[in-house]
Amino acid sequence: MHQTFDAALGINLLHANQEGANHNRAHFDEWGITCFNVMSSPGAGKTVLLEQTLAALSNKVKIAVIEGDMTTELDADRLRKYGVPVIAINTGRSCHLDSKMVAGGLHQLEHHYNPSEFDLVLVENVGNLVCPAEFEVGEHAKVALLSLTEGEDKPLKYPVMFQEADCLLITKMDLAPHLDVDVNRIVANVRQMNPDVTIIPVSAKTGEGLEAWFDWICSQIEQEFLSEQQLSVTH
């Protein structure tokens, strides 16, 4: 059976993107950097979560941010207030960051800083529940956010995002008393898509769950460091 032109084009695009992602990942590994690809729909709370993360960890962990938005540097400017390098990428009409865009961000980071001094790169992807999950950027882990205000059905309606996630943050938990939403049903729907994903309910407003999120970050960095150490010993 012959593929349609659109289907073949999509496969070719994903293949080319994966090659670029592998190249980015090689750079991250060479520099000893752990990279997270942070994804969600618009308004789920990515930027405020990163603000809280930078405020809590930037004195302990050397962090840089690659900030993706279709237009403006509004979110990038918010994060720059925490004194970390923030590289803004405007995607124009594209609904996601791809590996080539992130490679451009890495070249900027390498031009202005010594990348091997960093422990963590946080890639804040464009707000979208579909495309970002399809295009890897070289990350070591995918982090998805789902706000309570989005309802219980999103993991079933947009399965790829949740199937691909290594960590899911259920955000805006402070609104739970005011919404007709069953958090347990959200968790069950996510588990139906991805039984092994780490799920952390959080509220950037009250601080609920943030320590668990910070602990997960640090455990991932330590895990990647140990993996690199083992590789260097075997080679």
From TrEMBL:
Signal peptide as annotated in the record: none
Pfam families tied to this protein: cobW (PF02492)
The keyword Coiled coil is assigned to this record: no
Residue ranges of domain CobW/HypB/UreG nucleotide-binding in the record: 37-200
A GO BP entry: protein maturation
Entry keyword set: GTP-binding, Hydrolase, Metal-binding, Nickel, Nucleotide-binding, Zinc
Record flagged with keyword GTP-binding: yes
Cross-referenced InterPro entries: CobW/HypB/UreG_nucleotide-bd, Hyd_mat_HypB, P-loop_NTPase
Family in the record: Belongs to the SIMIBI class G3E GTPase family. HypB/HupM subfamily.
NCBIfam families tied to this protein: hypB
Protein name per its UniProtKB record: Hydrogenase nickel incorporation protein HypB
Native source organism of the sequence: Allocoleopsis franciscana PCC 7113
